[in-house]
């Protein structure tokens, strides 16, 4: 039994008097898709923001057992002077957002190149004087960018402006960009939001391929239950900021607590 | 002949305009990345004039006579030292205030502006200072009575500005650091999420802005020969106007705005009145902003939810 990639221990997140997450504990396994689901306002995105270093959890700890051994996300972002959320990416956690945040005025390839500054460290002078090591790093970065474009079925769009792409492609470009940071864990916040059925199918294939072919660990928030059931090996259900169920898709789907809390709400959503 | 007057004013206007453009670059880049007007930028330009004069004095002391060599070394040294000023100002006065209210760094910038003026006034004296003419002479067009001339120094200004802009365009569009700058400008938080060290990028932008202002500072100093501790104010306002005119946040806009402002001033001064040239220039700015609120090349900022 290997240690999980990400361990979340008793995390509580408060905003003033409001408790968004209470005593949340779960873990993310390596090389698998873990889904975080729950009704609107259950605290899924808050949890995501804690994991990816946007928020500092009020209590508890989030430990990434990545390339460089165990690492506490909370201490990383509050480290004096050099601390910041860019360090979380450097530690190996990449993310996408509910709303698309591409660099719209840059080309698709450039979007991917920006994301690789961790993988290929370089200083200003080597860039200005074009040293051989800079050339090699640049070439590797371009190769990696094209690699992920092909993986995401975007190779034909390489030189278009990111803002010109259709919505479904922009979604996949965001995933490609996150993958270019060389993450050990990629966190996708509602990747299927606003996609049509065929785009959703393409997305689910892409996510499954990440997992099976690249042994990538994925944590995903998603409302599309068909998609969640299809792609994930492990599901964590949040409601009112607390974990109410945790297990395999079959286990979660048959859990009475989930049926009560989750499906009740989603029926209302269907009617509305 | 009328055509020579026109030609002369066009030369003068373009020369003046490129200088405005060089200094506007600092305003526009800083605004692009952190959405802040760096009110101390004009004074950074003023400091660069003093650094240029001091460097020239030191070079002369060591017996360096060759004008091109002196000009180039002064340019390089002044850029380097002014860049350090730009870096230090951001580090000391703006970075600690990042994340506080939007107005705090503005007040801090005004403070830095006053501080630089007082510091130069006290250490260098309040009187006008001068530098000897390095390059004299001019190209003349026309006959002995009616002619337009473009001085050698003006030619140097045009070429030096062109080279500086060329380097800048190259750095921004084709280098890794430039790519990071553009990404940070478009979405600073997303850039951080992707692992870009945005603090370093902000420092870089201040360094670039100060260095380009220093190019302007050196060129103006050697063109006019005299300066004082207060030149940063007017030049700062003009360059800021150029940046707004071209569309703040846009690099080509800054240059375009600068040249447009320079031409307007020169033509109005040549044909109507020297006293009212600034009034006319600003009236033009107001009119233009009335029709294009985001400047010539600027784009409306979309509020993200």
UniProtKB/TrEMBL annotation, chain A:
Swiss-Prot/TrEMBL keywords: Amino-acid transport, ATP-binding, Nucleotide-binding, Transport
A single GO BP: L-alanine transport
Gene Ontology terms: cellular component: plasma membrane
Domain of life (superkingdom): Bacteria
Cited CDD domains: ABC_Mj1267_LivG_branched (cd03219)
InterPro entries given in the database record: AAA+_ATPase, ABC_AA/LPS_Transport, ABC_transporter-like_ATP-bd, BCA_ABC_TP_C, P-loop_NTPase
SUPFAM superfamilies documented for this protein: P-loop containing nucleoside triphosphate hydrolases
GO molecular function: ATP binding; ATP hydrolysis activity; L-isoleucine transmembrane transporter activity; L-phenylalanine transmembrane transporter activity; L-valine transmembrane transporter activity
Domain (ABC transporter): residue spans on this chain: 6-265
Family: Belongs to the ABC transporter superfamily.
Protein name in the entry: ATP-binding cassette domain-containing protein
Source organism (scientific name): Shinella kummerowiae
UniProtKB/TrEMBL annotation, chain B:
Spans traversing the lipid bilayer: 12-32, 44-64, 70-89, 101-120, 150-172, 201-222, 279-297
Organism expressing this protein natively: Shinella kummerowiae
UniProt key word Transmembrane: yes
CDD domains cross-referenced by the UniProt entry: TM_PBP1_LivH_like
GO cellular component, one term: plasma membrane
Protein name, UniProt field: Branched-chain amino acid ABC transporter permease LivH
Record carries keyword Membrane: yes
InterPro entries, alphabetized: ABC_transp_permease, BCAA_transport_permease
